[in-house]
Amino acid sequence: MSALTVREMTHAGCDRVAAIRVRGWQSAYRGLMPQPYLDALSVPVDAERHRSRFSRRDGGVVDLVAERGGEVVGWACHGPYRDGGLRTADAELYALYVDPARHGIGAGRLLLAEAVRRCAASGHARVLLWVLKENLRARRFYARSGFAPDGAEEPFEVDGVAVPEVRYVRDLTG
After folding, report:
1. What residues does 92 pair with on adjacent strands?
2. Alpha-carbon distance 28 to 149, whole Å?
3. Three-state SS for 132?
């Protein structure tokens, strides 16, 4: 089997990344979010959102993809931490998804390690991320990678249902 590699995403990858993100939501959030909402997620709509965001990049956001044998199997996105409408000196992992059919091959670990490496190289002292409070699998994954909850919680509402998030942080200064 070919090795996993990580590279920066290109505009051409928007469709595949959208498929990974939508399938990722539908798999990881089953039972955590209203099922009608998950069922209504659309790869073409998400792909268009990615193309639009990709076209107006501000330079601070980095999209990475993991590939195996020329196939994109995962996606991560990071940039400046968003505190409401403000950006801070910290970095934030905005998203990390692996094609559910490819879980367990190391793509998530590789993407996370590269995102953390790039955040440290950019001079950020910390990386923060938000994860659904009830997404225990993701919380364990981040904990194994050196992240820990810092006590912050944020309400997140999906179709009128509260789906709380907790913030995790990893110190990059040593």
Report:
1. 79, 128
2. 19
3. strand
